[in-house]
């Protein structure tokens, strides 16, 4: 395949599904299953190449290993417009699940263009899905803030490493959706002060701190954080202006590549705890590191969601899932920072090494030859 590269980790299987009668076309990449059956989302989109699907599957291999889950990495793409009529979507998702029923090394999860109802259809067809509705034993990870809960614990360890308190730390949050909103809630619960918040429509900041209950209420009403009432010290700007807010902890929880070589100079934070996936380019991350900004990598800090999904798959309760998120993320961030100290390297490098070592060790324990 043109845009697929093979290396020591995988991909283990690439399956193309095509059923013209049902209008069904899809791709599954199971990247690596040495740690267990792969977990990864089903992305519904018109235009994801097999190579891109592989890169996403690979990211799951390392994210699941970094989270120390007994799961490998996979990803699938169901080609189509995610906004198609619900009935048609249901038929396609069900057909896709049936076409992959025998690939037991892949557990379906929600991703862009699919949701918990889609996972309920998959579960109904083939029994193998995570991210289910509560009625089917699912743990609604966005409702409970599983990922933000992980960010809080990543920040706690980062603060210990920096020998500073989380209480009183000034936090700026880019993106006020499922991850950003819960982050605001959890961080203020520990005494941190939210000094800036942004959503796609704009940003608001105040050096003295914003009223998080008010921000949450605005979002509940379907409004923007930029609709925050004016007052002394309140500053408003476009969505990008959140990059300029001086703070101790900057939390990206919106889109990829929001910090790049062109704007990284504007960021005035002591640490970045990544909620979003790939929120900064590799070059920007290196510049921050050289400036002494501590960046806890995305696939370590934001693993709360996938940990929660894996716990759901293994039948854990909501409270047990939250406990495990705390335990795993605390341990992993501590471990990454120990490697950083030992090797004087970037946290991302340390995290990648840690994840790769875990996958290699698991691979060494497998019997590859059947003869
Ligand atoms: P969401 O759609 O619920 O929220 C996204 C928020 O970002 C919205 O408030 C939106 O207005 C805002 N936004 C979009 N573009 C923006 C911009 N240019 N500037 C400022 N704000 C902007 O999404 P989410 O579930 O909160 O996920 C946020 C990020 O975290 C994504 O990158 C996602 O891949 C990643 N992530 C989410 C989870 C999870 O559990 N939901 C887990 C791991 C990683």
Concise structural overview:
The protein is α/β, with parallel strands linked by helices and 371 residues long. Helix content is 40%, strand content 18%.
CATH fold name of the largest domain: Rossmann fold
What Rg do the Cα atoms give? 21 Å
**CATH H-level superfamily title of the largest domain:** NAD(P)-binding Rossmann-like Domain
Q: What ions, cofactors and ligands are bound?
A: nicotinamide-adenine-dinucleotide
Which series of helices and strands comes N to C?
Answer: EEEHEHEHHHEHEEHEEEHEHHHH
> Mean pLDDT score, rounded?
95
| Uncertain segments | none
**Number of helices, where a helix is a run of at least 4 consecutive DSSP H or I residues:** 12
- In the CATH hierarchy, what is the class of the largest domain? Alpha Beta
Silhouette: globular
Note down, in words, how this protein is organized.
It holds the Pfam family ELFV_dehydrog. The chain has helices at residues 50-66, 86-99, 116-126, 141-144, 146-161, 178-189, 212-220, 282-290, 298-301, 304-313, 318-343, 347-364, and strands spanning 13-19, 24-32, 38-45, 72-79, 106-110, 170-174, 193-199, 202-205, 235-237, 249-252, 271-273, 294-296. It is an alpha/beta fold. The strands form 2 sheets. It has a 7-stranded mixed beta sheet with strand order 9-8-7-6-10-11-12, sandwiched between helices. Strands 1-2-4-3-5 form a 5-stranded mixed beta sheet, sandwiched between helices. Helix 1 packs across helix 12 (347-364), helix 5 packs across helix 10 (304-313) and helix 6 (178-189) packs antiparallel against helix 7 (212-220). The mean pLDDT is 95.
């Amino acid at each position: 395949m043109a845009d697929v590269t093979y290396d020591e980790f995988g991909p283990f299987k690439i399956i193309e599904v095509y059923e013209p009668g049902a209008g069904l076309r899809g791709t599954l990449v199971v990247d690596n299953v040495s740690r267990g059956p792969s977990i990864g989302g089903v992305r519904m989109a018109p235009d994801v190449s097999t190579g891109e699907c592989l890169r996403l599957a690979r990211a799951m291999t390392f994210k699941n290993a970094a989270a120390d889950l007994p799961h490998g990495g996979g990803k699938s793409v169901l080609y189509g417009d995610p906004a198609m009529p619900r009935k048609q979507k249901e038929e396609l998702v069900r057909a896709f699940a049936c076409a992959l029923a025998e690939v037991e090394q892949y557990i379906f999860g929600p991703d862009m263009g699919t949701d918990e109802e889609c996972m309920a259809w998959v579960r109904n067809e083939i029994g193998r899905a995570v991210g289910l509705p509560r009625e089917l034993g699912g743990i609604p990870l966005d409702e409970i803030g599983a990922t933000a809960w992980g960010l809080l614990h990543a920040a706690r360890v980062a603060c210990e490493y920096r020998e500073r308190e989380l209480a009183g730390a000034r936090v700026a949050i880019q993106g006020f959706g499922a991850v950003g909103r819960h982050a605001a809630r959890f961080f203020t619960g520990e005494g941190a002060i939210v000094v800036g918040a942004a959503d796609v429509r704009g940003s608001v900041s105040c050096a003295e701190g914003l009223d998080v209950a008010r921000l949450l209420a605005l979002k509940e009403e379907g409004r923007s954080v930029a609709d925050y009432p004016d007052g002394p010290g309140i500053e408003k700007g476009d969505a990008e202006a959140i990059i300029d807010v001086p703070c101790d902890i900057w939390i990206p929880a919106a889109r990829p590549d929001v910090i790049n070589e062109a704007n990284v100079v504007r960021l005035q934070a002591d640490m970045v705890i990544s909620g979003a996936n790939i929120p900064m380019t590799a070059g920007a991350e290196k510049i921050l590191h050289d400036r002494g900004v501590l960046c806890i990598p995305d696939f370590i800090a934001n693993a709360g969601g996938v940990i929660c999904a894996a716990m759901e798959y293994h039948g854990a309760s909501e409270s047990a899932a939250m406990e495990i998120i705390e335990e795993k993320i605390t341990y992993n961030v501590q471990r990454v920072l120990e490697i950083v100290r030992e090797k004087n390297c970037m946290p991302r490098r340390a995290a990648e090494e840690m994840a790769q070592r875990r996958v290699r060790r698991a691979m060494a324990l497998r019997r590859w030859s059947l003869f």
